[in-house]
Structures are given as structure tokens and as C-alpha cells.
Amino acid sequence: MSALGELGSLRGKKPVGQKKDNLAGYLFLAPWLLGLFLITIGPMVASLYLSFTDYNLIQAPKWIGLENFTRMLSDERLHNSLRVTFTYVFVSVPLQLAIALLLAVVLDRGVRGMAFYRSVFYLPSLLGSSVAIAILWRQVFGTTGLLNQVLDVFGIEGKGWISDPSTALGTLVVLNVWTFGSPMVIFLAGLRQIPTMYYEAASVDGAGVLRRFFSITLPLLTPIIFFNLVLQIIHAFQSFTQAFVVSGGSGGPSDSTMFFTLYLYDRGFGNFDMGYASAMAWFLLVIIGVFTAANFFASKYWVFYDD
Amino acid sequence: MRHIPRGLRALTAAAVTVTLLAASACGGDSGGASSSADGGKVTLRFTWWGSDTRTKLTQQVIDAYQKDHPNVTIKGEFGEWSGYWDKLATTVAANDAPDIIQMDEKYLREYADRGALLDLKKADGLDTGKFEPDTLGAGEFDGGLYGLNAGINSFAVVVNPAAFKTAGVAIPDDKTWTWDDFAKTAAEITTKTGGKVTGTGALGTNEAGLNLWARQNGESLWTKDGKLGVSPEKTTDFFKYILKLRDAKAIPSAEAISQDMNASLDQSAFATGKLAMSFIWSNQLVAFSKATGQQLKLLRIPSPDGQAAKNGSYYKGSMFWSISARSKHQKEAAEFVNYLANNTAAGDVLLAERGVPPNTEVRAEVTPKLKPEDAATAKFIQDIKQDLGDPSPAPPVGGGQVEKIIQRYTTEVLFGRQAPDAAAKAFLNEVNGELK
Amino acid sequence: MTTETLHRSLAARRASGVTWARIRPLVIHVLLAGSALVMLYPVIWMVVSSLRPGNEIFRDPGILIKDLRIENYRVGWHALTEPFTRYLLNSGIVVLGSILGNLVSCSMAAYAFARLEFAGKKFWFAIMLLSIMLPIHVVIVPQYILFSNLGWINTVLPLIVPKLLATDAFFVFLMVQFIRGIPRELDEAARIDGCGKASIFLRIILPLMVPALATTTIFTFIWTWNDFFSQLIYLTDPHMYTVPVALRSFVDSTSSSSWGSMFAMSVVSLVPVFLAFLLGQRFLIKGIATTGIK
């Protein structure tokens, strides 16, 4: 918890003359606090407790101490799932955010018909995790899929992108990047908050597109970029649905798309080992917590707040 | 709990008391919402997985039953396969399980061995007298009957006659064919169609192939006392045979096979007409016929020396009816299961949608009304009856994972990432690790 | 800066970029249209598939329709035990409740975190972030037991009440980041005018964070509309089923599936979310940019 205490960005400079206002603070926070104590904490503590037990969902949990955690040390498939997850996080998050930002900036102003393009680019994200995605992905990346047909025109021999263990994860990265709509919308909303007068002034100074982007847009957008980065990393670490749907729940071929959460689910609901799954979940929480804390720590150096 | 601070211990205890123990397994009657009785009126919850076709038919049967039994209300809960099991596990954990549960062999012992299912032998009002004797075995273990066969299935080779015709290859006699004949036929099709159609889908995309292979060699995937019963040698042979099929181009590329393992039935290579043969469960014939638009044919599984009686076939329960051990209306639930299994009126509606009815009387009533594909399946089930081996034991606790595991090792072997003997060893090791 | 220099600099820019300025929109359009097509191919394929007979869907990866059939829509609408309208309605109720809950409770919590100084703020913020780091699969069972003991199974309460209590930290954090982008001088000015905390929140902050509220509305709509797992678990009675649960009931991985109906109803279920997006994104335009403060 001490690492997470380092939430530097929240520190903000206190405006002179503003005193602590505990009553108002807790009143505004009341719904959330109520939810925390009534709904969130109970199940969380329960899962923490379960991580020290042997619990098969049907019979009462049995206390086994640290056994679940020591078992994780020698679980080869778990180690593999960590590798897969880390690769996925570090490749897909930057790619997705870069594309989302680029398109948000392009779609934000200038060209006519932007509302149309915005909607079109968001459409794939609407499909989200529907079963249709699983079918679509095979139609595109399968051995006789669209991609191979296109490659064939250029005389390149395709392959089974989804079914080859060396490329399957890549197709999931593409799937994640393809659904860049959510960060794009958040970027768009953030761009709307940048006062237009900054740009007007820059125009007058003769600043070019690139300079305006780097000296106005980017710095003023950093709180939003930071938000997207933190949340997309958390989200990518927890990534489950897309791999589940595309691999039919198997994490295959050959465990090449076996994300950590997919393996956790497989242990918990597939193998009725909810104690072990809970231990895995808390391990993941520590990993995500460390990354988030590091993010908050680093944000002091690159995120600019107006307050 | 020695190393945990007292404060945390108290907090943990409190939270756990509230959320878990209140509804844990030992609790007798704490499950609130599962079912209710009100002045002789009984509400039963009945859950199944399947597509909309099954849902419609099942709902019809429910409606008919309610008309005859005005004091019983049955709430049908339907859903697709993977969500079904998440939901079932969650509701069982919360002591809120439905009364009547459509069960799969994979999870049968998982629930039964932990006391979540009722022993149907002790249930009032359920009669299994008219059942085909071989069909009860799979739901029977430790002296009790925990799942009642809801439809008979058998593993089989499915043939697309149109593809054989295109290739100019005759469909072999399945009563005498050996694994060598099978490989030869498949390879011949691939060659003669210039690779347009591949001979067959691979074995090893589910555990049934290995089970039959083991049974043909005097072993069995699972033993009756819930252990692995197949040896490393036979498993190695099994993987070697798959490689032999690959090298003869009797099966598609490793990529195509691996892709098919998790494809939906309709999107699979056989359903889209790219294969001349494949391995399926007999009740899938209807769906595959619909998907290919062809009249398909079921053949017996090949055997080592050309004797169909030694090909290790068995009647599998396509699915089972189980009753929750904590149901408050076990008698009413058993009566409804009895209706589903033994009533000809119910059979007339359900026909063979869940597999060929195991009750011989219902089957006789239903057979003339079946669609051609269902009739073909029923006939196949009837035909192989004389060649059946012993019933195959249900997978033990943790054994439900075996399908995913064998898929993974078949992929490894086909891609050449592991040799058959290494894969066999690793496969058995891993399965053993899953068993509890 | 005088008007004269302004004119001069604009004229200079105009001269240097005459041809590029003319071509640029065209280039951007071509690029955008091209990538839009790639993005959209799968979606188009889905719509086309919904117009094909079920068994043709998987034989043809192309997007040309030979004979157009709308019967998938007719059949799919009535294929389950209730007409599809029922599932749309159920989803609608859950979605509306969730949006309302998130807007009210998350904006309140966000205001507290972004603008108010109170003891333990950092601690609670850390707890809030922690609460979304645990994968749902291990909390779902304890949560189900909790709601089941409250007698909430088969009601929309387990889906809506958490939103009313701001359990969705994503949106709290999002709004925090937006509120922090609003110049503090505005609060100060209002405070000097005699506004209390509540009226600063209602009169200054809320109107200025319309883009964030619109984003929250859009996302809550879409995510709740598509959310499968919790709706599957908590709504067990088919009368209560929602769209995602119903959609999956067309598909059975082990036997026959009604793909035509599934695709058709998927398209139907896309319409409300797409409309919500079209409508919601209009509000992304409002905000500080147009009010021109500072």
C-alpha cells in the first residue's frame, strides 16, 4: 500500500486561503464510500481470504496458508501466461493509444465530414466482445481468410494467423488496436477542453501544425493521456474477453494467447480451484498496483495540470 | 492463522461470515430464492444450455407438463455453453442452484463427488426400467446414479459422399476397415482432388479419439475408480498415427487443424466442405448436414485389425439430467425428470434433439417421426449396438480439462514442436496433475 | 500585436501553402476513407451475413449479396421464449439506471477528489483505484452470495445499485482528470461571489465538464449494453434476460446454431448503441472550447 500512497498527481498546489473541508469532502464522497463498504470491500476481503484456502466452489473453503502462493512459483503455465500478458500490454497499449491520439487530433478539426468518420471509427468498438467477433476474426485471419486472399493477390503465401502459435497473439493485438474507439473518444473530449484562443494565438505567431501540436495540444492533453495510459494498462493486464472469445476459451493455440486472467478463469471455473484463482488475482493486483504507482510517480515529471 | 494480525483476522472473519459461510456447503436451508412452496404450489427451476431450437422445444414440453400439473410451475433458464457453467458454479457456490440441471459428462463427477447432486436411485418417482441397459452406466458411480442419460451419442466417422464422388473414391466398408485403410482412403482423396478437398479431419482434437484408441488396445482413458487408464506407449502410438496422417497429407495443415479446434461447428472445415471425412459425435449429424447442405453418412470408427466389434465403441450420454442435492422439491423435480425421460408425449416434442432417446419405448414411438438426418443417427446407434464394448467411465474430478489439454499437445505434435513420445509423457503428466 | 502584422503573417502563410492547402483536405479524405473501409469491413460483413441464409454465411467471406433475405430478422425476433423487444427493453432499463447512477455518483466523488481538501483523500483515492484492479472472476462468487442474501437475484438491483454508489472507478478517475483541467480561477470567482461547495459544483463544474459527462454517458451505455457476465449471472429468469444474454442463446458450440438469427439480432442490437454514440458525440463539442473562457 505504501507504493500507492505515492499518488503524487493528487497533491496539486493548495490555493491560498482554502482550508481543509472534511465535511463537504466526505459528503460528496458519501455515495462512493457507501458503495465501498457495502458492496466492494466484502467480496474483496472474501477473495483475499479465499486465496489462503483450498476452495472448490461447492464445499466449504479449507485454510491452507501460503500453499497457493508457493504453488504459483512452480506453475509453468502461469509463468507462460505472465509472459503472454506482459507482451500484450507493452505492445498493444502504446500502439492503441498512439493511433487513438492521432485519429482524435485529425478528426477534431479541419476537415469536413468528421462526425461521420468519428462514428465509423468508433463502430468496431461497439461490437466489443460479442460472439460475432470470434466469427469475424476467423473470417479475416483464418487459413482461407480475407487477409490471405489479399496477400495471395500480391503473390505472398499466407498462413493460419490465428492458429499458428507464433502469430496468434499478434492477431489479438490487432483486435485491441482495432477497437481504439474508447481512448479516441476520451482524447476527443480532452481536445475540446483546450481553449481555442491558444491555437489562435499560435496561428498568429505563425506556428505550423507540428509545432502547435507539440507546444499546445500535447502538453495540455497530458492529464488525459495520463488517464488513458493508466486505465488502458490496467485494462490490458486484465484483458480477458477478446482472447476468450477468439480462442474459444482455450487460450490456444498452445497457450500462446493464454492471458493471465484467462488462466485464472480456467483455474477458478474450469478446474474448480477458486482458492488458487483468488491467489492469482491478488498477485495480479500487486503487479497492476506497482505499475499504476510507478505511473503516478512518473506523472509528476510529464503531466501538466492547470490548477 | 498465526501470522496474521488480530485486527485483520477479525475483519476477514467478519467479511467471510457475511459473504461465504452464510451460504456455504454445510448450510442446510439458507438458500433463499431457489424455489418456493406456497399452498401446495411448487416452483421448480430448470436450466439447460443449447441454441434457440432446443430452447423452443424444451419450453413446449414445460408448457405441456404445467398443463397436466397445475400445482407445478417450472421456470426454464437457458443459455449458451460457456456462460452456462460459470452461472451454474456461481449459483451452486451460493447455495442457490436450480432444481433440475442439464449436465455434461465433463462436469458430472465434479459436482456429484462434492455432494451437489442428488442420487437419482433414491429419488421418488423416477423410473429407469425402460432404459437401454448400457446407457445408465455413464451416470453411475460410487454406487449411485447422479446423471440420467438424456440422449445417446456415439463417436463416429462422418462422411461427405459428394466429396468421395468428386474424388472418384469408393466409401469403404466400415465393418472391416482398419486404421491403415482409413489413412489410405483419406490420402487418396487429397491426392485425387488435387488438394481441393482433404481426406479427413484429425484425431486428437478431442479426447474421445484417444479413449477409443485406448479401448481398442485393452486400455481406457479413465478407469472406474477415477484414474488415468491409458499408458504412455499407447498415447505415443496415438500421436504417431496422427503424424502418419499428416505426412500422408490425409489431414489438413497443422494450422488448419489447430484453427478448427475452437471453431464453431458451422465454421469448421468439414462444415464448409473442405473435408471428405471427420470425427464427430453422432448427434451432430443434423447440424453438419444443415451446414454442408449434403446428405452425410455415419461410419463406424476404424479398428486395428478390421473387426468392428473390437473398435471400442460405447454409448455416451450426450447430456444428462441431474437434480440438485439441495433442491427443496426433490420429489417434484424427479417427477419432471421422469416425464422428460419416459413420457412419449415429451419424446414426441423433443425427438432426438438431445440425442437418440435411451428409453426404448420412447425411441420406438419417436423413430418414425424423425427427420431423415435424425433417423440416420438413430439407425446408426441401433446398428452398432451389437458391437459395443463396456460403458466408458465418466471423467473423474478434474478430468473435464482433458479436452483442452489434448488439443494443446496435438497442436504441439502437428507443428513439430514436440516428438510423439515426449508429448505423450507431458500430456499424461499434466492430466494427472489436474486430477484431485 | 497589431492588425497589420496579423494580416501580413496570414498572407505569407497563404502564399506558401496555396497548393498544399488545396490538396490537403483531399489527401486526408482519401486516407480516412481508406482506413475507414478497412475498419469497417468486418462490420459490413456482419450486416451482409445477417441478410444471408444461415448455411451460406461461412462459405463466403466476401461482402456481395446474391439474394437478399430479411427472414433472419423475422425469425430471430421470435426465436427465443420472448420476443426480442423484451430483451431490448430489459437492457434499456439496466442501461438507463446505470447511466443515471454513474453521472450522479461519479461526478460527486470526482469533485471531492479533484477540488476539495479533506483528511485521507490520497488514501481513499488509492483504495478506489485498487478496487478496479481485481479481476471480476474472483469477486463474482462472493458478490453473488452477498446479493443473493439480500434477495436481489433476478432484479436489476445488483446491476444498478453499484453504479448509484460510484463503484465504477474508471469514471470517477476520468472526471477527476477533466475537473482538474478546469481553471481554478472560476471556482475562486464563484466562491468570492458567495457560492458554497454545492453550488460551485452544480453551477460551475458540472456545466464545464459536459464533454466528460457525455463520455461517461456514451461509455456507460455501450459497456452496459454489451456487458455479458454480470447480466448472465444476476438475471436468471428468461423474462429478465438482456440483449447480450439473449444473443448468445442463438449459439451452441456443440450442436446446431442459428447464426443467421444471431447476426440479424446483433445488427438490431447495434442500432441503439450506434444512435447513442451519434447523439452523445454531439455533446463532446460543447465545453470550454466554445465558452471561450480564460
UniProtKB/TrEMBL annotation, chain A:
It is found in: Cell membrane. GO terms for biological process: transmembrane transport. One of its GO terms (cellular component) is plasma membrane. Keywords: Cell membrane, Membrane, Transmembrane, Transmembrane helix, Transport. The chain crosses the membrane at residues 23-46, 86-107, 119-137, 168-191, 212-237, 277-298. Pfam families: BPD_transp_1. It is a multi-pass membrane protein. Residues 82-295 form the ABC transmembrane type-1 domain. It comes from the Bacteria. Its main location: membrane. Belongs to the binding-protein-dependent transport system permease family. This is Sugar ABC transporter permease. It comes from Kribbella soli.
TrEMBL record, chain C:
Its main location: membrane. Signal peptide: none annotated. It is found in: Cell membrane. Keywords: Cell membrane, Membrane, Transmembrane, Transmembrane helix, Transport. One of its GO terms (biological process) is transmembrane transport. It is a multi-pass membrane protein. It comes from the Bacteria. The keyword Cell membrane applies. PROSITE patterns: ABC_TM1. Residues 88-280 form the ABC transmembrane type-1 domain. Belongs to the binding-protein-dependent transport system permease family. This is Carbohydrate ABC transporter permease.
